[in-house]
Amino acid sequence: MSDDAESIDRVLRGDIDQFADLIVRHRDHVLKIVQGHVPADHVAEVAHDVFVRGYRSLAGYRGEVPFEHWLSRLAVRTCYDYWRTNQRADVPVSALTEDQAGWLDRALASESDEQFREQRDRQDALEVLAWALAQLSPEQRLVLTLVSLEGRSVREVADLLGWTVVNVKVRCHRARQALLALFFQEWKRHEHERPS
Amino acid sequence: MNARPKKTLDKVEQVFAQAHRLRERIVVGPDWVHGIMREIRRGDAVQRGFSMLAWVEPLVWRVAGGAALAAVLFAGSVLVYTSQHSSPVTAPWMEELDTGTPFPDE
Q1: Segment A20-60, tens digit of pLDDT
Q2: Potential cystine with A69: which of A65, A131, A157, B61 (Cβ 3.0-4.6 Å)?
């Protein structure tokens, strides 16, 4: 019996304290998933919810997949729920600042991504990314983060979210179209505002 | 941007992905684990409280069901009695309770 299976068995038999072992064993994995989806100041809170939910639904864990994988599904779905309740509340919905628009201009104009390796450019990139994702629906932002930013396969994302492969593909395509329209709109706006 | 929208988006996505990978790692301390365990224990205690009172609900339903059945039987017997007798159903008790005139001196 693996360490996880043994701990789960003991928790289910009433030894609640054993769940702390599971938390310690898997917290880095859960935090890593969560921090890719929610703002940095909410990561600990959302990861906390993942483990509380995990405890409450532990009786439903059948051991068909590794516990870490089961927890990953729960983490991704908790992040999705976070955005369904906090959509557009935490990230500025307003237009990009001059600096961010400048970054986007450079990104769109340059031939390579070499110049975006600098720390300052990375920070700008993260801010523009947060702004762009805030304009998308929770489904679109989730699927775009998992597929385009984290490089997960469509099948893997379908498994994590409990959606069909076709559904993931369609939503991903729509999310990319929305992102492109957004950049184009913002680029046009700055082009228009720029003194000639 | 119009000319090669897909290529442009691919490139920006690549930059985003790179920035995404280099996000600062969040570190949590032992207090965070204790906080989760506190919430779990509290939730468990509430759950246990509910399950200790779980026997109350069926009991209430049983008593209510019994009372409803008794009421139906009583109403039925009153109907049967009134159809067979001309005096009111309360007549036997009325005679027992009749202590004569309230003020005999008058």
Answers
A1: 999 999 999 999 999 999 988 899 999 999 999 999 999 99
A2: A65
A98-193: CATH, from 1.10.443.10, 3.10.50.40, 1.10.10.10, 2.40.160.60: 1.10.10.10
Name the band, by pLDDT with cuts 50, 70 and 90, for residue A127. Answer: confident
Say yes or no for a CB contact (<8 Å) between A126 and B19: yes
Phi-psi group of A29: left, alpha or beta (phi > 0 → left; psi -120 to 50 → alpha; rest → beta): alpha
Domain spans in chain A, listed from the N-terminal domain onward: 3-86, 98-193
Chain B residues lying within 8 Å of A56, measured CB to CB: 43
Q: Write down the residue that tokens 């998308």 correspond to.
A: A136
Across the interface, which of A52, A179, A184 has its CB nearest the CB of B36? A52
Cβ within 8 Å, pair B23-A35: yes
A3-86 maps to CATH 1.10.1740.10 = yes
Contact A40 B23 (CB under 8 A): yes
A5 HSE (CA, 13 A, CB side) = 7
A89 interface with B at CB cutoff 8 Å: no
Q: What is the pLDDT of residues A69-114, one digit of tens each?
A: 999 999 999 999 999 888 765 555 556 777 777 777 777 666 555 5
Q: How far is A12 from chain B (nearest CA, A)?
A: 12
